[in-house]
Amino acid sequence: MQNIADFMSTGHRECDVAFAIAEQAASEKNWSTAEIAFNDFSVNMARHFLMEEDKLFPMLLSAGGPDAPVNVMVMEHAQMNELIDQIAHSLEKKESETYGGLSETLLIMMQQHNLKEEQILYPIADKLLEDQRENLINSLRSCL
To answer: How many Å apart are CA 87 and CA 79, to the nearest integer?
Structure first.
């Protein structure tokens, strides 16, 4: 059975791929490709955040998981969502320089955020939720 860390990290990689395609297309002013890839990215990110905030994090906290890291992740989700909205606006306006600057900021945030989740929070979840892992992953899959 797949563990929580691997399952959730796969979601990170899928978002990263769509984000990179959108960023490259925007830099080339290929707006139709950028829009399609960015929409894919933003839908996948929203789904990933929902899985964490509605399913993973509540179960982790109920099992005695640490409040502070979970609260930081939720706060960072809100910050990233704000940047995603700003990037979407720059994409709509076809402002490649603004898009590039905002996407670089978001990329750095995502890299740092994902690192904390993958190296700290997900391993804690795997340990504390070991007996519930299969049910949790099945529940998370239902969000896809």
So the answer is: 13
Q: Would you give per-residue pLDDT tens digits along the chain (144 residues)?
A: 789 999 999 999 999 999 999 999 999 999 999 999 999 999 999 999 999 999 999 999 999 999 999 999 999 999 999 999 999 999 999 999 999 999 999 999 999 999 999 999 999 999 999 999 999 999 999 887
pTM for the predicted model, two decimal places: 0.94
Q: Which domains does the chain have, with CATH numbers?
A: 4-141 (1.20.120.520)
Q: Left if phi > 0, otherwise alpha if psi is -120 to 50, otherwise beta: which for 65?
A: beta
Residues 132, 137, 139, 144: what is their CA dihedral angle, to the nearest 10 degrees?
170
Alpha-carbon distance of 38 to 58, in angstroms, equals 29
CB 8 within 8 A of CB 56: yes
How far, in Å, CA of 137 to CA of 86, rounded?
Answer: 32
- Centre a 10 Å sphere on the Cβ of residue 5 and count the other Cβ atoms it contains: 17
Query: Are the CB atoms for 21 and 37 separated by under 8 Å?
Result: yes
